[in-house]
Design a protein that fits this description.
There is one protein chain. By secondary structure, the chain is α/β, with parallel strands linked by helices. 46% of the residues lie in helices and 14% in strands.
Length: 285
């Protein structure tokens, strides 16, 4: 498929990052959110990041202007009708994603590919509520999207090879490193990552070490760039908790994936990490 126009559903951290790398890679980008001011704020953030790239000499003024001109903003899903690929990056709630996919299925061309950025939900289940399950797949980016190179391309039970090859090529065009995954709970990265977060939470809960100590040890001894608590703050504690819940449920309650209550308490307190001004650490909003 000759992809020239990409739709992005959701203009939060992930959606804005996906939209930015797509526009920088030469694609026309239609970015959607439920309110105009939300999309406008996301575009303002994208343009600020492009301006910083210009100031660092990584983009020319002309390149900046060309990238900015590739964006189209909308609050109407019907405006995705001529996109060859639409990537959904809405909040990590299955009911929301299903509703979006049903609407996109009605509005988009028959041969358009619908991809979801979900970190853990079943691609097969999401695809099953459309009339194009063969053209539904996962395209899971990592935060921050402009910097992180890995993209998980996830095959649902009914996803066809043409869909997979198109998304692999799209990821390569975005200068990303695509990795093929089967539709299992958490795919690859989030399945591997659950013990990293869960054991850290249990160590804190058992008063063996503090948040700061765990992070420092993992960075100093393990050579991780960020500790498990710093990384939760970056991702969003609510998103991380939701992913753990989803993986736990997907494996029918297998104990090794069981969420920790302290993470839930942080979420209930509104301490969601960087985006909220504080989580395990304090940040300036």
């Amino acid at each position: 498929m000759d992809v020239t126009k990409v739709g992005v559903i959701g203009s939060g951290t992930m959606g804005a990052g996906i939209a930015q790398v797509a526009a920088q890679s030469g694609y026309t980008v239609v970015i959607y959110d439920i309110r105009e001011e939300v999309v406008a704020r996301a575009l303002s953030g994208i343009f600020s990041r492009l301006e910083r790239l210009y100031e660092k000499g990584k983009l020319t003024r002309e390149e900046c202007q060309e990238i900015q001109a590739r964006f189209r903003q909308t609050t109407t899903l019907a405006d995705m009708h001529d996109c060859q690929v639409v990537i959904e990056a809405a909040p990590e709630r299955l009911a929301i994603k299903k509703q979006i996919f049903q609407e996109l299925d009605a509005h988009c061309a028959e041969d358009a590919i619908l991809a979801t950025n979900t970190s853990s939900f079943s691609i097969t289940e999401i695809g099953s509520i459309t009339k194009r399950a063969d053209r539904v797949a996962g395209m899971h980016f990592f935060n921050p999207v402009p910097i992180m190179s890995l993209v998980e391309i996830v095959r649902g039970v009914q996803t066809d090879e043409k869909t997979i090859s198109t998304l692999v090529q799209l990821a390569l065009n975005l200068k990303k490193h695509p990795v093929l995954c089967e539709d299992t709970p958490g795919f690859i990265v989030n399945r591997v990552a659950r013990p990293f977060y869960n054991e850290a939470l249990r160590i804190k809960g058992d008063s063996i070490a503090s948040v700061e100590q765990v992070d420092r040890i993992m960075k100093k001894a393990g050579r991780f760039k960020m500790g498990p608590f710093e990384l939760q703050d970056l991702i969003g504690i609510d998103i991380n908790f939701s992913t753990t819940e989803s993986v736990h449920q997907g494996f029918f309650g297998e104990d090794r994936f069981r969420p920790h209550f302290f993470q839930q308490r942080m979420m209930q307190a509104g301490k969601l990490g960087r985006k909220a001004g504080g989580g395990y650490y304090d940040y300036e909003k």
